[in-house]
């Protein structure tokens, strides 16, 4: 029986997910320059011809993964711009980061991939370099504004909000790198440890 259009689409999406997962793993562990399309095809368990049907070049695949990561950063900005309590927003965000880091590698890989895209942007002619810089700056500013609101509401400790936002993301980025480097020896700090510098202790 011939496959339906929906079945073909499911197969296509499943193949793309395999390619994405393999490429992220290799780009993060080997670096963009040391990874070739044959490596990606082998790791994904598909033929190189099938990979080329989805992506004409390694650069195209890398840029699509970076675009996906950037969309995630934009969603974080929108999330932090909502009208909920700053303490509640930060707690939910940190809980999700914690769960993602404990249960899988995708978040760690995406964070490292964003950094790699800035480092290899010139080599890949990535159209995302300027966008990443702008989105990162917006995310820092939005988070700093959220921290200021939390300070006014008496939920967060006093301090320079911009510096606190930078420390917050530097911690998460550093933990992503540690997870990749240490693998099974990595221990993810609890949400309460990640927010200890920010949340006011109850008296």
Fold and architecture overview:
There is one protein chain. This protein has 203 residues and is mainly α. The chain folds into two domains: 1-56, Arc Repressor Mutant, subunit A, CATH 1.10.10.60; 59-195, Tetracycline Repressor, domain 2 (Orthogonal Bundle), CATH 1.10.357. It is built from ten helices and no strands. The chain has helices spanning 5-30, 37-44, 48-54, 58-80, 86-103, 106-119, 121-124, 129-152, 161-182, 191-194. Helix 4 (58-80) packs parallel to helix 8 (129-152) and helix 6 crosses helix 9. The protein is elongated. The N and C termini lie far apart (70 Å).
**In what range is the share of β-strand residues?**
under 5%
If you average the pLDDT, what whole number results? 90
At the first level of CATH, the class of the largest domain is Mainly Alpha
**What structural category do the secondary elements indicate?**
mainly alpha
Helix content: over 70%
DNA-binding region: 36-55
Keywords: DNA-binding, Transcription, Transcription regulation
Protein name: AcrR family transcriptional regulator
Domain HTH tetR-type: 13-73
């Amino acid at each position: 029986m011939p496959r339906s259009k929906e079945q073909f689409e499911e197969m296509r999406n499943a193949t793309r997910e395999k390619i994405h997962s393999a490429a992220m793993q290799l780009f993060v562990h080997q670096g963009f320059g040391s990874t070739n399309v044959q490596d990606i095809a082998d790791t994904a368990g598909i033929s190189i011809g099938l990979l080329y049907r989805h992506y004409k070049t390694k650069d195209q695949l890398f840029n699509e993964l970076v675009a996906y990561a950037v969309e995630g950063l934009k969603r974080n900005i929108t999330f932090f711009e909502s009208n909920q309590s700053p303490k509640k927003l930060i707690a939910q965000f940190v809980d999700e980061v914690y769960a993602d880091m404990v249960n899988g590698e995708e978040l760690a890989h995406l964070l490292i991939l964003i950094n790699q895209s800035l480092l290899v942007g010139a080599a890949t002619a990535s159209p995302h370099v300027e966008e990443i810089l702008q989105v990162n700056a917006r995310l820092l500013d939005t988070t700093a504004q959220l921290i200021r609101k939390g300070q006014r509401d008496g939920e967060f400790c006093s301090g320079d909000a911009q510096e606190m936002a930078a420390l917050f993301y530097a911690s998460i980025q550093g933990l992503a790198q540690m997870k990749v480097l240490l693998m099974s020896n990595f221990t993810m700090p609890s949400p309460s440890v990640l927010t200890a510098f920010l949340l006011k202790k109850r008296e």
